[in-house]
Amino acid sequence: MKTFSLVVAGALLLLTAGCSSHDVTDPSAGSARPSSSSASGSAATGSSTTAPATTAPATTGPATSSPSAASAPTCTTADLRVTVRPDPNGAAAGSTFDDVLLRNTGGTTCLMTGWPGVSFVTGSQGRQVGAPAARQGTPAVVSLAPGASAEALLQVAEAGDFAPCATTSVRGLRIYPPNQRDAVFVPLPTKACAQTSAQQLTVRPVVLRG
Question: Please, which residues have CB within 8 angstroms of residue 113's CB and are 6 or more apart in sequence?
Fold first, then answer.
């Protein structure tokens, strides 16, 4: 019986020694995990791979939205049909309002900006009467597709509002499209004030006709 007790005690000692040996090796296994510096290195690598994704749209966006309008030619007098019509919304005491219409009769889109030059004349080849139209407003570039029209609002004050004023019968208007040297004659019989100090005509910049 004593011999059996000694055998059991020896077995328990061996089992205890085995367990304590296993507990000692656990912490050393933990020290084999990646350090904090290697983890931050992998994080840096991740951020560098996402950087190009944020810059790619910026390089492709403008290319799809610039149809090269700036390369279109300037609208010339030869490409335009110029007419004058009463403005349906314009009215003021002592003045009438007309729309100077410029229609693109050419086969390609063209650009214009600024004001038409407008003055009274005694005929299609006649002399100018009074001062040319004063300019008001801020111009913008207008792109005219074939068949499209631009318009400029023209205010015509009554000649009788200027005193003293030597009124002269005129046959119409001489109109220069914006930034052009060739003019067209548009019939518009009326009375004009011959004094150049009288500002009878006022014009606004061209806009795309809706």
Answer: 139, 140, 141, 142, 178, 179, 205, 206
Beta pairing partners, 83? 101
Preceding amide of 164 cis, omega within 30: yes
HEC sequence for 149-163: EEEEEEEEECHHHCC
Count the alpha carbons within 13 Å of 77 in the hemisphere toward its beta carbon: 13
Separation CA 9–CA 162 (nearest Å): 133
Q: Count Cα atoms within 13 angstroms, Cβ side, for 157.
A: 19
Q: In this structure, are residues 172 and 186 in contact, taking their beta carbons and an 8 Å threshold?
A: yes
From residue 125, how far is each of 73, 120, 139, 190 by CA, in Å?
29, 12, 29, 17
d(CA 52, CA 59): 11
Q: What's phi and psi for 188, nearest 5 deg?
A: -165, 75
For residue 148, the 8-state DSSP code is -
Residue-wise pLDDT for 108-144, tens only, equals: 999 999 999 999 999 988 899 999 999 999 999 999 9
pTM of model > 0.70? no
Query: HSE of 127 in the Cβ direction (CA atoms, 13 Å)?
Result: 5
